[in-house]
Amino acid sequence: MSKKLQVVLSKSVSKLGKDGDMVEVAPGYATNYLIPQGFAKLATPGIIKQVEQRKAKEQQRIIAEREDALARKTALQTVGRFVVRKQVGEGESIFGTVTTQDLADAIKASTGQEVDRRGITIPEIGKTGFYKAQVKIHPEVTAEVEIQVAPL
User: Fold this and answer.
1) Which of 7, 102, 104, 143 is the right S-S partner for 76, CB 3.0 to 4.6 Å?
2) Could you give phi then psi for residue 25, rounded to 5 degrees?
3) How many angstroms separate the CA atoms of 125 and 128, rounded?
4) What is the domain range of residue 122?
C-alpha cells in the first residue's frame, strides 16, 4: 500500500476541498493530476506556514466584520423606529404594500447605512400602524427594528 501525500489546494476541487485546504491524497492523483493542472502544491514547511498565516488573517477579517455588524445593529436599534409613508384609502388601509425596498430606503434616509433589501423580513402590512421587522446585517447578526407606516 502506498503512502499518501499532503498537498495544499490552490483552487477548489469538488469532493476534495476548497482553496487553501491541506488534504492527503494518493501519490498518483497528486503527481499526475492535481499538481500538473495547477490545483495543488506539494505541502512543504514554507507553504504550510503561508497557509496558516492566510487562515489567521482570514479569521481576523471575519472577527472584524462581525464586530462591524454588531456596531451597525446597535446604530439601527438606537434609531429605533423608521417611518414609511404610503398612500392611504378608507379605514387606514394602504394602497399596495410595504416592501423590503421601502424599508431599506427609510433606513438609508435615517442612518445613511446601506442595507441589503434581501436580508429584510417584514410582516404582511395592510394598514397604517406600527410593525416589527428583522434586518439581517451579517450571517450571525440580526437587528429588530420598528416600522411606522404613515399616510403621505
Assistant:
1) 143
2) -135, 165
3) 8
4) 78-151
Work out the end-to-end distance of the chain between its first and last CA atoms, rounded to an integer number of angstroms: 78
Pairing assessment for the beta strands 120-121 and 81-86 based on DSSP bridges: unpaired
User: What pLDDT score was predicted for residue 2?
Assistant: 64
Query: What was the pLDDT predicted at 48?
Result: 87
* C-beta of residue 78 within 8 angstroms of C-beta of residue 43: no
In the chain, the number of structural domains is: 2
* Burial (Cβ within 10 Å: 0-12, 13-18, ≥19) of residue 152: exposed
Same domain, 57 and 87: no
Do 98 and 55 lie in a common domain? no
Which phi and psi (to 5°) does residue 128 adopt?
A: -70, 160
In which residue ranges of the chain is pLDDT below 50? Answer: none
